[in-house]
Amino acid sequence: MMEFTAAQIAEALQGKVEGDENVKVNNVAPIEQGKPGTLSFLSNPKYTEYIYGTEASIVIVNEDFKPEKPVKAALIKVPDAYQAFATLLTMYEQAKPVPEGIDSMSKIDETAKVGEKVFVDTYAVIGKNAKIGDRVQIHAQAYVGNNVTIGAGTVIYPGVKIYHDCVIGKQVTIHAGAVIGADGFGFAPKKGENYQKIPQIGNVVLEDHVEIGANTCIDRATMGSTIIREGVKLDNLIQVAHNVEIGHHTVMASQVGISGSTKIGKDCMFGGQVGLAGHINIGDNVKAGAQAGISGNIKDNQTVLGSPAISYIRERKAMAVYRNLPELWRKLNDLEQKINN
Question: 175 an active-site residue?
Answer without folding.
Answer: no
